[in-house]
Predict the structure.
Amino acid sequence: MKKKLAVILAGILLLIVSGCGNSNAGTAEPGQASLPVSGTAVSEPSASEETTAEPSGESSAAETTALETTVPPETTAAETTAAPMVFQDVDETVYVTGQVNFRAEPSLDAEIKAVLSKRASVKRTGIGDEWSRVVQNGEEGYVSNKYLTTEKPKVPAGSVEGQAGTGIYHEGGDILVVIDAGHQGKQMTEKEPNGPGSSTMKAKVASGTEGVSTGNEEYKVTLNVALYLRDELLSRGYSVLMTRETNDVKLSNVDRAQIANEAGADAMVRIHCNSSEKSSVTGALGICQSPDNPYCGDIYKTCLKLTKAVLNGHCEATGRKNTGVWETDTMTGTNWCQVPNTIIEMGYMSNSDEDELMGTEDFQRNAAIGIADGLDDYFGR
Ligand SMILES: [Zn+2]
């Protein structure tokens, strides 16, 4: 609770500092990275991870913590003579589009009775020009219209496993994390554009790599970790949307990004194992876009922050060497993704020691814990 309060306060501070009226200003970017790059990749991943999703038009990144906030003193004073508010009676369910205050009266000066979470549903009993009268937990209060919609959130509860564009949803809390286990049982050699509108075409899903010592397939190892991570995040109060929970799916890299875009996810973690021609190469690598990425450069800072957090968490929990962040604009899945996202390359299957380690249940559980730690860090929890 304390942490949550701190996040809210930080959001308010941010708004006050940057002035009111701009709803984007409140975005709780979990921390602007101070440095553009944390490290240079030693070696490139197997370059097989892409996806390509349809651009969904709006980025959910901006709405994570837009709190409606106090107006500057002079504005408040000037508006006191306004006509009394009129509410038209309605009876409908509405959904919260971004964390927002639930107030005793329809005024920014009114007592805050609660803070409603993104995706929460409330009953609306009256609607005015700027405020809605809503009932939450049997209590009447007011919420700014800007943060309410009648459109049900696109989180696909009960969705069909492996169906492109839906994912498998698990309700657990306010923050929605998409987990993508890299690759799948069968590669998809058909091509798809490397980015929205791009003429560069890449295979929909590559086969992934294979353990030099164990013969383990990458797609099985990534799924094991993804399933552990799902359970770990649910136990920590996150909601989780899985791109897949079995190996027998047909999900291109675009499809996978699209699942996150359409759900308006707060973050997406894509789990992979790396491979190098040099068997001596070891360590974990994080991947995100460059700031100049034509498709998603606008969320670069957020993605870098997420990438560093997840990579650090993973390395701490598994003892892998941290080889830094590789910024690249060649990944289809990154280029199409419009929510904060990262690729974690957990280690090298081309190194026999690391391959064998990654095949163990201990490692896979620890990797999940480490990634979850990174997400906690990123979200300030
Ligand atoms: Zn991979």
Observations:
- The pocket of zinc ion is lined by residues 46, 48-49, 182-183, 208, 218, 272 (CB under 6 Å).
- Confidence is low (pLDDT under 50) at residues 1-67, 69-80, 160-165.
- The domain at 28-62+156-379 is CATH 3.40.630.40 (Aminopeptidase).
- Residues 300-318 form the longest helix (19 residues).
